[in-house]
Amino acid sequence: MKSAEIREAFLRFFEEQGHTRVASSSLIPGNDPTLLFTNAGMNQFKDCFLGQEKRAYTRAVSSQKCVRAGGKHNDLENVGYTARHHTFFEMLGNFSFGDYFKRDAITYAWTFLTGVLNLPKEKLWVTVYASDDEAYDIWTREIGVPAERMVRIGDNKGAPYASDNFWTMGDTGPCGPCTEIFYDHGADIWGGPPGSPEEDGDRYIEIWNNVFMQFNRTADGVLHPLPAPSVDTGMGLERVSAVLQHVNSNYEIDLFQSLLAAAANAIGCSNDNQASLKVVADHIRSCGFLIADGVLPSNEGRGYVLRRIIRRACRHGNKLGVKGSFFYQIVAALVAEMGEAFPELKNQQAHIERVLKAEEEQFAKTLEQGLKILEQDLAELKGTIVPGDVVFKLYDTYGFPMDLTGDIARERNLTLDEAGFEREMDAQRERARSASSFGMDYNSLVKVDVATQFTGYKATAGEGKVVALYKDGIAVEQLSEGEDGVVILDQTPFYAESGGQIGDSGYLTAGGDVRFDVSDTTKTGGAFLHHGVQVSGSLKVGTSVSTEVAAEVRQATSLNHSATHLLHSALRQVLGDHVQQKGSLVDSQRLRFDFSHFEAIKPDQIKALEDIVNAEVRKNTAVETEETDIETAKKKGAMALFGEKYGDSVRVLSMGGGFSVELCGGIHANRTGDIALFKIVSESGVAAGVRRIEAVTGAVALEYLNAAEEQLKEAANLVKGNRDNVLDKLSAVLERNRLLEKQLEQLQAKAASAAGDDLSGSAVDVKGVKVLAARLDGQDGKALLALVDQLKNKLGRAVILLGGVHEDKVVLVAGVTKDLTGQLKAGDLMKQAAAAVGGKGGGRPDMAQGGGVDAAGLEAALALAVPFAEQGI
Ligand code: SER
User: With left for phi above 0 and alpha for psi between -120 and 50, is residue 14 left, alpha or beta?
Assistant: First the structure.
């Protein structure tokens, strides 16, 4: 069976068992700062497990794209060296949200494997969490797996619940005991059953994990029972394909064959099972998908992980002898292999290629140099540990991520002093005071059952009740005057930062003199977090408050948000359908929109964009919203961020009767006319293939134009003109300036000529040749050249060297009359003279020019003329 057929068979089987087929979510987890990348099928359902989100279904099935590089589940270092680890893989999963539990989950898994895929029962082994007798009994008594192929696994990772059979999404979040199904690839492959000392071999491979979700783990390590026991399963598509295609390594399955061939082709090496080629074939998948989902290489967070993966691929290509950029060339094979199932790859092929090529070219500049430095350091190394400062130097100066240096070290049986490297990094962070804010664990703040109702689409004020308070990340009963903290209400009109729009500010008040000023609003799970300071009185859990959003700020922000949508549509009209949103930021002062496009936007295109948006503004159509399901929305042509996580019900926002239709949960103008005026203030590039437009609307746009007008008035005043004639006046000033410059030049030439007359008298005679060396300050090179010409005519057989200081630099001109150039060359004299003033020069045998910066050497330079002539004649 081909991988694509297995994927389809899985989805269909569970659909037949009443599961709803749900599309893969983006690799960038939506609104979940605890997670670096989507690393399991259950991520998009996290809030369903926690009871914070209800969907129309209680059973789901998906094939989810996952990246396990960086973060808790990190396989990067193993990739290429084992048969089954990947940075990117597809996870087939079935899920129950408080619907079926252990018995059905186990039965479905067994039926699918043995009844649909027809795997031989005797090849399957099963593990359960040591204390999970219920699962053990279902397997042995009901399914009939013999005890000798059942293994109980306890807390084998050194702490309570730290076990191969207790699955956790991250340090916090939904978790529970699991039962795993292994496939025995046969005695001719080394390895032992799970739980045995040889379990890391490639003989017994885990293919399916069934997690019985029962708890939410908070940052303090406490396990809180979930509202309803649930099921989360995951089966690696690549692993099960290997089983069904009768190969032991994932790299031998159909999906990888074309990627390996394309990699070998791009590199120009043979395709014979080298680890480095597997690394490249694996990495093109994570890199391609991450870029398609909006990640760009950078020096922090997700962007840095992407950069690490690209650089690791480049280094392995380099090991295989590649010359020049190669990695981006494999994108086409990836699109051919997976573009059908994941259209975002196809749509963004050109963008992915550009980003990869730019990153490769940038890294190529330092790769070779860095490898040389590393070679030198390794040659001098005593012992087997590469010191932290060496690893840091490579990182800091040559852009070698630590795992890349680690890879090279491992090939030579060396290890890294990781702690030493971290110390150097800490020191640098301290120096730069730029610790990244990634990983702020808001999840630990919020209890499972907090879900705030949002009332802010219609109102900017209302009432609410305090359901939780936090200070310094810890739940408290009360916030007292002067304290910073976070307030969670049962309902709020405050918009929480999302979809590029900043969170609302404003204040909360309660009886007496109680006031909490809100500076920002964010959300995690279902809870809205009002961040701010208790300015007077105190707030307690249970207090009823009045809520008041800063309405003017909100209003100005909403105009910018609506204008962003109009700009998005206008961009596609003016530049083409390849324009994809890459990011946006909307606040009360301006809007910023990043999108894929390959070159700078031309002035006439900027004008066209402004004209289109302002025409929509003048039409003053109503901004309409509609709640519907994702499929209906897509049929209406709604632009959605590709792969973004959307719940069952989505909000479709339309303007201009179909001019702009987007999925959006943000706050918008009532009518497009509210925007009043749209003005683009800048256009720039932010990364390879990504442009940025910044624009203003409403009162801010008017202010912007007023300021421009003010400047124009000032400019007119300077040339004693007015708004109507300022251009004529300016042209006249420039023309006069040009004339004056010309006159000045003529006067200078005249002055030089007069000086020439004077100078000719000071030439000395060297064996019948006139040698003249003189200093003339304030003349540029052109004037000195003219003078040398003139002096040649006047002096007959002559060697001339003139020099002077002009605009802080030394200018030198040397001339030799034609009859002497056989013996003496002006260029040679110039070389010596220029060196004396710390510069360079050269030219023809009869005329040479040069200059330098060291005026103190000018006399010495001029003194060179006579000895030069004496030696040559
Ligand atoms: N979440 C579990 C895993 O990733 C099962 O899907 O293994």
Answer: alpha
